[in-house]
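Notes continue from the previous slide.

Worked example: a multi-chain complex. Inputs as given:
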Amino acid sequence: MKGIAHFISGVTVASFCPWAVEAAQNGDPTYFILGAVAGILPDTIDFKFYRFFYPHDVRIEPDQTTLDPQPIADAVAAAVSAAAEGKITTLKLSTIKMGADDWRQYRVKIDPEAGEVRVQFGPVVSTGQVPQPDTLPASRSVGLAKFSAPILQSYEPTYTVDIFDGPSFKFTRNDAGQVEIDFLPWHRNWSHSLTVGALLAGIASFWTWHAGVVIFGAYVIHVIEDQMGHMGSNLFFPFTKKRAPGLKIMHSGDAFPNFAGVWLCCLLIFWNVYAAIPNPLYHFTFVRFMMTALVIPFAIFGIVRWLLMLPDKGHPESIPTSWDI
Amino acid sequence: MIFTALTAVLAGTILSCFLAILPGLHIYNVMGLAAILIYWLQSMGIAVSPEVYLPFMIGLVVGWSVLNTIPSVLLGAPDESAIFTVLPGQKYLMTGRGYEGTMMIGAGSLIGLFMLVFIIGPFAPKYLPVVRYVLNPHMHWILWVIITFILITEWPKGGNRGPAGWRKFFDAWSTLSAGLFTFIISGLLGFLLLYRAPVSIENAFQNIMPAFVGLFAIPWCLLNAVSGAKVPEQRVRDTLNINGDLLLRSGIAGGIGGGFAAFFPVVTGGIGGLLAGHATAQRDERVFMMSQGVSKVVYYTGALMLFFVPGLYLTRGGGAWILKGLYTPRTVGDYYLALGCIAISGAVSFLLMSPLTKWTLLLMKKVDYRLISVFALGIITALVFSITGRVGLFIMSVGTGIGLIPVLYGSRRLNCLGVLLLPIACNMSGIGEPIAAFLGLL
């Protein structure tokens, strides 16, 4: 899920702790801040610290003037072949920044059935990954390189490289002789484990066990939310070495689950602080509250969206990009 | 009475057209001046009826919140609430689609007005007093959590290339450190302004204004004035590349962000926009731009509207604070008057958006883009000097120095809001005075 969803989930966990609400009522925001920070901490560790120290054997930095896909395909295929020969290889595909908000997009496909890597350059996209008009390269040749090794994919076969930091891979030969592709090996690894959450909670408990409970709850909810996606997490590091596959219910960037999650968290926080009022001036039940603030608004949203999408099926004018990989 | 109110709201709206085109000028400064004029007239024995000044002030705020998109996109001079629209807006401008970009944000503003009058308006008196009652003791930690979110979610822009190690780490953290530094130093400036207000007591209501102008408006004007960018020929397109689905998504994203900012103290339109953008995970830049239009209108106009909501009478935003000194709303009639004024002023402002955008584009054809920025710089400097004097200019200069840090290092400009967020959050948690004492301000 997106950062804000993890963040607000951590706050929500704190709101379920009576001592956190009581402290807040007395002007002490510590537990809520702890919950928020612990909720987003696994991603903060990965994206703001660990990834800068993760070494790559091969770094591919495409030339933005020639836009030649062949060297990229060759380098990826060579990394797969090296792994097949027993050399664990890490590889990074760099992004191509064209301006303050412009990035050249390209795609890499590692096709296990054809035993080849295919690469093609695409349009310039904004940081929102929206293609910009008239930016496709004049030549859209496909770079192709062969490898001869069985592949075990843990993620999707096609990787789009465009904004911020590019993707990285770890190629390892397993006991069955297959080359395992570990997508973003520095992400959702040790930082996304329940054991690390427990360790941090234990350290916090030296101050007070209340803080330990909040931190552990917020950390665990992050790992659980990520488990809904495709990549999964390394749940019991150091006892487990690999990520447990996700449930594949959603993608982390999907708008609706993220928004629904954030909204639900806001409502739960509201309910928890309302429930902590000794003699409330206003009276309403949990069911009525959820009907008013969640069920009815979302139902209206669904109907209005359906009506608005009738004319063009929800597909506004956009710039399509065709890929030949 | 209706004719008087109608005339006053139209006058306010028309005046806001001119004020909105002036880059860097904030409507609250003009409202402050209008309030001084009303006080002066009253002291001279000339009574100004609320049926005149209330619609007039509402017209000013609504018209400005809709139309200040024009300088934000075309002249690159955003106020704090519009800082996120600038990048995509300027991209539209630099690809000859400045008109389209402006009208797209304008369409967002229209959605925002629709939400205020037809959705929030009818339900606000029933639900918002409950929300306020429940959340009132918790405002302080909500503010701290928002501050944490702003600081923790800044994305490292560097460190994407080269071998792993400390060099890469420091490259990435240069933007993050600049952001943190900006927040802390803005916060210290805020403490100074709060505990040792240098502006004279008569103009105390404009205490924060020179700092805001320095933090947000001046850096942008300076950057425009020295930039060598040449604005290409602009095309005027008859239709906007949007549909109902995009309108709905931007309405929800912007409505939540703007509404949140309008309801919670110290949370500004920029913060609301940031939270809404993250929460709704919108990637399409059309949705993004329209949602910022929605957010801006819901924030400025909504905050003023909350002042009139029966059973709530919430004072949020500079506009409401200025009005509070003049008038205390008491009846449902006041609320309907405000809603009616918002509807009329919003409709007129939106209709004026297209001709005003075309007129600005014509002006940009004839007058150099940089010259307009220098002119704007002159106007806002003169305004700061006329209201707050030399001390105001000094505060503005300090603010400009801080405001240039994120511009130069590529960090979030929102960190400049530390000027408000840090001292007020500290005060709400009861630690403001000890910190001020530690800083030697007491």
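Summary box: Chain B touches chain A through 58 residues (CB under 8 Å). The radius of gyration of chain B is 21 Å.
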